[in-house]
Amino acid sequence: MTTRFALTIEFDGTPFFGLQRQSHGPSVQQAVEDALGRITGESVTLHSAGRTDAGVHALAMRSHVDVEKPFDPFRLMAALNAQLRPDPIAVTHCEVVPDDWHARFSCTGRRYLYRIINRRAPLTLLRDKAWHVPPPLDAEAMHRAAQALVGRHDFTTFRSVHCQAADPVKSLDELRVERVGEEVHIHAAARSFLHHQVRSMVGCLKLVGAGTWPEARIAEALAARDRNALGLNAPPHGLYFVAARYDEGGPDA
């Protein structure tokens, strides 16, 4: 008999080729599965709410694993954190959930944060943790332009050419831009996102903030439904998976 454990995972994506297991480099999934294998002696598969790209970080990625050996959740979390060292991955919460709860398929909402450091001085402590943009950005103009993307739209312009989603139509619940001191934060929330959607939206909003694009161009790019209308794809290291929402049958993160 197996027990399903829900994990909340924090990680620095810098040294990884993404969350999902890769054949050509290290991944967060592989690191966690290998650690679980050493602890349990079992072949365990990690299922997660998101599939972050290389260099993308997570503050609270929701995942689950099925383990046959009996474990107290706190002890399993402690053992995992011990085995994961020195990889920049931490399990911040672990609990038993029903067998029909699924980290990915039960998830009804995902939230991301994109961090831009808007200053002349180079980054030191936040190197690889944010996008460094030296010229001044107008965060208010970025926010106004972003509202054209909120709602249900065909986001073909804002998805990777390698995106495997069958339908480019998505409902974007929130796209909010705010200045926090020398940082510009872009908050995005939706049930699900297309590959590179957040980074593509952020890249174009940066052009608005810098005065390169007029605000109206965001709506025009969306209406074009053409990847060639994209102005810029923001780098991965400013993006953070913040939270997953579960409306029924499981805990939120």
Tell me the fraction of residues in β-strands, as a range. 25-35%
Q: Taking Cα atoms only, what radius of gyration do you get, to the nearest Å? A: 19 Å
What structural class should be given to the helix and strand makeup? alpha+beta
The third-level CATH topology of the largest domain is Alpha-Beta Plaits
Q: Got a strand count?
A: 10
Summarize the structure.
By secondary structure, the protein is α+β, with helices and mostly antiparallel strands. It has two domains: 3-106, Alpha-Beta Plaits (2-Layer Sandwich), CATH 3.30.70.580; 109-243, Alpha-Beta Plaits.
Q: Describe it for me?
A:
With 253 residues, the protein is of the alpha+beta class. It folds into 2 domains: 3-106, 2-Layer Sandwich (Alpha-Beta Plaits); 109-243, Pseudouridine synthase I, catalytic domain, C-terminal subdomain (Alpha-Beta Plaits, 2-Layer Sandwich), CATH 3.30.70.660. The protein contains 5 helices and 10 strands. The protein has helices at residues 28-40, 73-84, 139-146, 197-209, 216-224; strands at 3-11, 47-48, 57-67, 89-97, 109-117, 131-132, 151-154, 169-180, 183-190, 239-245. Strands 1, 2, 3, 4, 5, 6, 7, 8, 9 and 10 form a 10-stranded mixed beta sheet that branches. α1 (28-40) packs across α2 (73-84) and α3 (139-146) packs across α4. The mean pLDDT is 95.
